[in-house]
Amino acid sequence: MYTDLLVKIKNAQAVKKENVKLSYSIMDNAILDILSKKNFVGEVSVKGRAPKKVLDANLKYDKDGSGAIHGVKILSKPSRHLYAGYTELYPVKQGFGLLVVSTPKGIMDGQSAKKSKLGGELLFEIW
Q: What is the pTM of this model?
């Protein structure tokens, strides 16, 4: 699940690891692709075959040595699902953050979901 993915990345950045290996799922792969495009993580690759597939993500750091991910706020949980229409999607940290939304067309960031006029389940904010 994506919550485990985010916590593992955040913890790996805290101890200055170069890359992190995560268990494969289609949802986690889509989320890592979005994070890679928005420069929160580096290159992402899928290794292995069917039963033992692994996602290998390179981590990014700022010039001062701190991780590229400064904070994460998980919005939807298994006990509470939070939904919003496209008019209710908002910028995170005045546009410096990223909102990730699960839409009927797949997992998207908040800006592209709003542009496509798609609402859905709000997964998390990252900055």
A: 0.90
pLDDT at 5 > cutoff 90? yes
Domains and CATH numbers, the chain: 2-59 (3.30.1370.30), 72-126 (3.30.1490.10)
Distance CA 57, CA 16 (A): 13
* Structure tokens belonging to residue 102: 């699960």
Give exposure, 111-120, as e/b (b: 16+ Cβ within 10 Å). Answer: eebbeeebbb
CA 18 to chain centre: 18
The angle at the Cα of 120, spanning 119 to 123, to the nearest 5 degrees, equals 125
Position 96, amino acid: F
